[in-house]
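Lab notes, practical 5.
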Amino acid sequence: FPIGCLPKAQVRQVAEALALPTRARPDSQGICFLGKVQFSEFVRAHLGEREGALVEAESGAELGRHMGFWFHTIGQRQGLGLSNGPWYVTDKDPATNVVFVSRNYHRTAYRRDKFKCGRFSWNVPTENGKATNPAIADLTRCKVRHGAQMYGCQVAFDDSPVDADEANPKEATATVMLDGDDQGLAAGQYAVFYNSAGQCLGCAVILEALEGTPKPDYEAIEPEEEARGKPFQTILKKRLPAGQEKE
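Output from the prediction step:
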């Protein structure tokens, strides 16, 4: 949804008027063609399994094992099999099959409000019926997942074209800054762009989540000696007010 110009509520009304067998079927956020097959079973059948390490992001310590980074998503909380949580997936390294986890996922010192994207596909019809590229100034709103959440955004294309139509949509990349903090930004997801009137202008694939806007009163610290040389993510700690620093 929407289907063409029809929002979900109107599609439901049409289905009811036509007495379609699916008119009362509940909404689904899953993959529709899987039916009753679980997502994990579908992925396992197509990608198989490969054991890897669950690594604590702050310490580099291995906490457990997993059966393939492709089974896990950024922000995931359930299904990790770790005690003393809650634990969240914070990052994945496809090259080493390492999945990073943390209990401080929602206390990061950086907002998740910035990402790089590419492989654009535009949806702005012209008089001849073909899609054209919108002006950058029109790309004012963005969605990064299913649901009602919409962010205001600023889009900056690499090599600084004046308008999006000066960039090859299949080759261009851009950096997007959101006006909100989204905990689930991850490579492989789609970002969908809208204008101020709510018209869908097109989409792009998120290539990587970037280090976003620093939250106040945080600073980077060096890893402990025993953690060096292990898979590691940057640690940040909150600065104490003047006069309260620990010696």
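Observations recorded by the TA: The first strand starts at residue 52 and ends at 56. Confidence is low (pLDDT under 50) at residues 232-236.
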